[in-house]
Amino acid sequence: MVTSGLIFEDLDSWQRWSARQTVMRALVSRVRHRGHGALAPEAMLCLPADEPISLVVVDKLTASCRAAVVTPISRMNLRTTAVLTRIPEACDLVDGGERRVWHEADGLPASISGVLTLGAYCDLAGKVKSWCRRHDVEFLVAQHGLITPWAPPLANGDRFFAWSAADAEYQTGGRASVSAEVIGSQMLWEAAALPPAQVLDERPVMLGQLHGIELGRLTEQRIYTDFCTRFGADYRPHPNEADALSRTQHAIMRRAGVHFETSGLPLPELGRPAVSIFSTGTLEAAQRGLPAWVYHPNAPAWVRDFWTRYGLSQFGSAPTAPVAMPDVEPALAAAKIMEGCQ
Q1: Do residues 302 and 333 share a domain?
Q2: Confidence (pTM)
Q3: Angle at CA 159, nearest 5°, toward 154 and 164?
Q4: In this predicted model, what pLDDT tens digit does every residue of 219-246 receive, in sequence order?
Q5: Is the model's pLDDT at 180 over the cut of 70?
Q6: Are residues 174 and 245 in the same domain?
Q7: Which residues of 206-244 are buried (b: 16+ CB within 10 A; e: fewer)?
Q8: Of 18, 24, 167, 297, which residue is the least packed, with the fewest Cβ within 10 Å?
């Protein structure tokens, strides 16, 4: 029997672990984020002009999440697609219908037959999952990034939209209570549709991930410092590396001779080779035709498995090849499956 590669196979355990991580991160970033405990905006249920049949829950609106759950909306029947969100911008995805404040106790229109989400680990999606269970409505989860062992697991009954067969197996293996369909990555589809990026500077850019929990900050700091000073690379901090501890680590790296790339330009416009330990940016760069690699001098088994699963090439070998695209645009495939729930 194939087993899932995830550390947590039930969502409750993952959520308890995640809550502890959130507390620790809040302690680290408390100097920068005073007032972080402000109340979240009210949830808004944005209804279409006609009776809603599909519901898309927009809990996050990062670039990767937008590709996973927002782009499919434009491929659906907008007259029968509703949106649930706390993000004002996402309310504009639905035009012509009613908008109302939504609470979990309100329930949802009985006409809804399928729900597209980022997963029940998210705030609103988790509340909607309970409603879906009670009303036997299909709950679909769109993959929006590369999967590490610490990724949130699916909840029982979920149907997973995977980027690849390997990701589908990794996320669902050994669990009869969940299922998956391979539709591909909308984010990589969009990258592949753009003109190839030109290499304007041969010096690599190391993509930072100090904010992550997978390898530990000090381990990553040593790897980044060693790589950048040995190979003349610049360090490009992740946007989430703005907390006090990250800034301290940056200062130490600078004193060790590491140069930083802080232009803010997208990687394709920067036109430089990309290197990371396990960043999605490596795959995005490869998709645009830039030389892209991964690097870890003594990679643990899960990192090596990650590299293999995504076809990532180690620094010093041939660059990472672009991912082969499916015949059907992933956003359109997701929309068609949603329509099939009716």
Answers
A1: no
A2: 0.92
A3: 90
A4: 999 999 999 999 999 999 998 888 899 9
A5: yes
A6: no
A7: bbbbbbbebbebeebbebbbebbeeeebbbbbbeebebe
A8: 297
